[in-house]
Specification:
This protein is of the alpha/beta class. It is built from 8 helices and 10 strands. The protein has 2 domains: 93 residues, Spore Coat Polysaccharide Biosynthesis Protein SpsA, Chain A (Alpha-Beta Complex); 111 residues, Spore Coat Polysaccharide Biosynthesis Protein SpsA, Chain A, CATH 3.90.550.10. Strands 1, 2, 3, 4, 5, 6, 7, 8, 9 and 10 form a 10-stranded mixed β-sheet that branches. The mean pLDDT is 92.
Amino acid sequence: MVPLVSVIMPAYNAEELISESIESVLSQTYTNFELIVIDDCSKDQTVKVVERFTLKDSRVKLVKNIKNKGVAETRNAGLDQAKGSIVAFLDSDDKWEENKLEKQLAIFDKNPDIDMVYSAYYRFNNVGIKNIVKAPFFLNKNKLLKGNPIGNLTAIYNFKKHTNIRQKKIGHEDYLFWLEIFSSSDKVKGIGIQEPLAYYRVAEDGQSISGNKFKAAGWTWRIYREYLQLNIISSLYYFSYYMIKALLKRV
């Protein structure tokens, strides 16, 4: 059986870049997918741009928030509409290589016990590719607690096994989301493809919007203590790994 992949794309004032993102999904060599674009009350022409795609390709579906909710709740609105057994995320300014889903689903097919497949990815802007962010070969909860190596735009996961998990409206919402999936069972594991299969857009100075390291460190500490409720010793242990990786990470 060929699984249906639900691709979740939140969008807000994305008229300039969303066409390129949508086209990178529609050009996938793996074709059994639905693309759910959720407009978060954009003030520009985002909705009209997406509507043109819905008229050309029935796999593209548009959902409109009745009020602005932010990226976490907007992704959740997409998850509520998803019909696929596999889910992928792609923001409206990022894009994929055309064989991304095909290569990832081949890994799923050979390893039916895994929950997630992710990959390396490019950081890029209008000037060109800045660098490649590598992906670990293997991931479990213990490794994930030491820092988030999952590019949100690269991961696909078994939605059928984790249907009820949703993102929370906090900083690092994607990191907590993955941690909750990996915390649902000791058997949860992921496999990383070393080839870059996606493009993560950064600002022209090379920085991402979420690039404030001090703010990110605070978010991570809060995840350990408030959401996962780790004790102080465990929190300090994992936070030390996080900080070392953050200091060594290429900007």
